[in-house]
Amino acid sequence: MVERRLTAPGIDFDRLRAELGLTAHFPPRVATEAAAVTDRCADERTDRRDLELVTVDPPGSMDLDQALRVVREGGGYLVHYAIADVAALVRPGGDLDEESRRRGETIYFPDGNVPLHPRVLSEGAGSLLPDEDRPAVLWTVHVDADGTVASAEVERATVRSRARLDYAGVSEAAATGTAHPSIAALPDFGATREAWSLGRGAVLLDLPDQDVVPNRDPKHARAWTLRLAPRTPADRWNAQVSLLVGMCAGTIMRKAGIGLFRTLPAAGPEAVDELARVADSLGAVWPDGATPGQFLAGLPADEPTTLALMSAGARLMRGAGYRAIEPGTPVDDADLVHAGVGGLYGHVTAPLRRLADRFATEVCLSVTAGRPVPDWVTESLPGLGKIMSGADSTAGTAARRSIDLAEAVVLSDQLGARFEATVLRDGNGKKAAEIFIAEPAIIAPCEPSPGAGRRCLVEVTQADPEAGTVGFAAL
Known about the structure:
- There is one protein chain.
- The protein is of the alpha+beta class.
- The chain has helices spanning 13-19, 28-35, 95-103, 119-125, 167-175, 186-199, 233-256, 269-281, 292-297, 304-313, 355-369, 375-378, 381-410, and strands at residues 8-9, 46-47, 53-56, 66-73, 76-84, 107-109, 112-114, 133-143, 149-165, 210-214, 223-228, 259-263, 321-325, 337-338, 343-344, 418-425, 433-437, 442-447, 455-464, 469-474.
- The strands form 6 sheets. Strands 2, 3, 4, 5, 8 and 9 form a 6-stranded mixed β-sheet that branches. The protein has a 5-stranded mixed β-barrel with strand order 16-17-18-20-19.
- A hairpin with a 2-residue loop joins strand 4 (66-73) and strand 5.
- Helix 6 (186-199) packs across helix 7 and helix 7 (233-256) crosses helix 11 (355-369).
């Protein structure tokens, strides 16, 4: 067998940024405006620095959009979720506003990001860094014991985060009974809301995510390798807080007849039938009455067939988009629903990194306060979907091409090398089968098709760093 290096020295991600027309640098006038931002809504704020909020993010993150507190309240939960108040810092119609509309969202690469806003704002004045007073939009949500929302309020507030935590640390602390008091109830809350969402038809996929990361070997300090993105229970728990607030926002906007919704049509019968066929072929039992989401959530985590079924389940999630509505415009609820979360949903929890959140949040603040939605919001809503769809497409391309390039460079001296793999997806005549290799973490096409859910031995047949392509043959 060929000796394996399994690292990629000196990958040029600048090349990808250039090809996509992306730069982390901002025009001087935009940078100047960002450095001088002030709180335009200071006189509207409630002082909520009494709340013991904490942030939970990947290690090293500086653009901290959210701070949370989840505690028990009777048989249910009280959730406080503070979101960076970007709308209070960005002047409508200014250079900073115009540049953020051009960018749409922060785009991530393995060696850094191309931010939506200059870092002096996204990692400084707007970020909910610990021990700093910050302008925020504070959501207060009361949740019943079964996961149902009893009430939700939103207001502008001044907050002060007490600690910056990460997912692995939160998971470990929960397992050892040493969780921060502000989130001691987060595990139970997360499980409760997951069950509630699945009961409403939500689909929670658990496919392996690839990360291109610096090699830990000091002899190859400038090299990169591919690993599975770390998955912790805290990732799921924290996601449920964000989904909760996004669904509250969707409900508020729908009742008011104005806003921007993240949408996903319900899966058609063909996609559900396809998942059922794959399940049957792999001997997986679909319980009577279970929704596709409940079936997928009940699969054993470590079985190779589960990876194949999750891959098939991803086809249930096609057609995501955005839909703006304005007062007086008739619209069917079915056109606004996000089937993946099982209800109405709006992006409001990541305004430092995503443009749409600034506008949807302002709708919610205005509606709940009983005042008209500002003109700068209503005038922008119709065009936001196109901006966000374009930015999402660019972000997806950046992520996919970064991984493709890393895979090709890592395997460039491995032609003929053999790896153990799991088949994620069977070939269908038009497309090759898709395999998953755990070490290094690679998802790639393979011919011939060994059959979904099977473990097999594969051989590297192609690795072209220039084209960013790899290929395998099943043995």
